[in-house]
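Journal club prep, notes for RB
We'll compare a predicted complex against what the paper describes. Inputs for the FMC case:
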Amino acid sequence: MASEAGPISKVLIVVAMQTEAMPLVSKFKLVEAPAHESTFPKGAPWVRYHGNYKDLHIDLVLPGKDAVFGVDSVGTVSAALVTSFSIQTLKPDLIINAGTAGGFKAKGASIGDVFLASDVAFHDRRIPIPVFDMYGTGARKTFTAPNILKELNLKVGKLSTGDSLDMSPHDEEVILSNDATIKDMEGAAVAYVADMFSTPAIFVKAVTDIVDGEKPTSEEFLQNLIAVTAALDLAVTRVVEFISGKSISDL
Ligand code: FMC
């Protein structure tokens, strides 16, 4: 791992869906790590692309396809697993969790906005016992990157994470008390693992759907996924270009 003062050399990009990953793979000219040189254990569906971009080594990992249903393994469990193993084996200086999210228009989010999350928390881990309640919510501040924010002109907001795409009334209540502007299915899980292993992590999230709007979430999500992914990839590219040649304390 690079010291705080040394230039960042290894970046780990954690993405949940193949649709979100592929434009970044081609932008950074990453190649898939062949099975025989895979650092991942046999049986794990996780996928790793890697390569050098400018003076950075980039590893882009995704949880891969569910073995039974063949769909992207979205959600907290898969994200935590692949992040944990990737930190152990790839030893990144910085993690970028890039993905799509739902946004709250009441908090100023619009479709296509790209946010850098200032805080993360869970909204579907209700444990109404003192202290366990706070453990469940798991609110934490993310690594602050004021210069990335300033340079890239991203929006800032709190991110709330849960394992459902939709929002139950219970979830809504917690999301409100988490003061969240955006909502996803991986961020707080990636943050938990990154903190566990003292690896700085930033959360770049592009809004595919408006949670407090009229349209059904799944419909709006699928409708906007491709277009919003382009905005996400542009933002991630700019973040990576900004990071190149800098140290952690410059971010
Ligand atoms: N609520 C929760 N997650 C998402 C969302 C929403 N309104 N819009 N987009 C997402 C993200 C999640 O993090 C998943 O990776 C994927 O997109 C939806 O399955």
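Talking point for the session: The chain has a mean pLDDT of 95.
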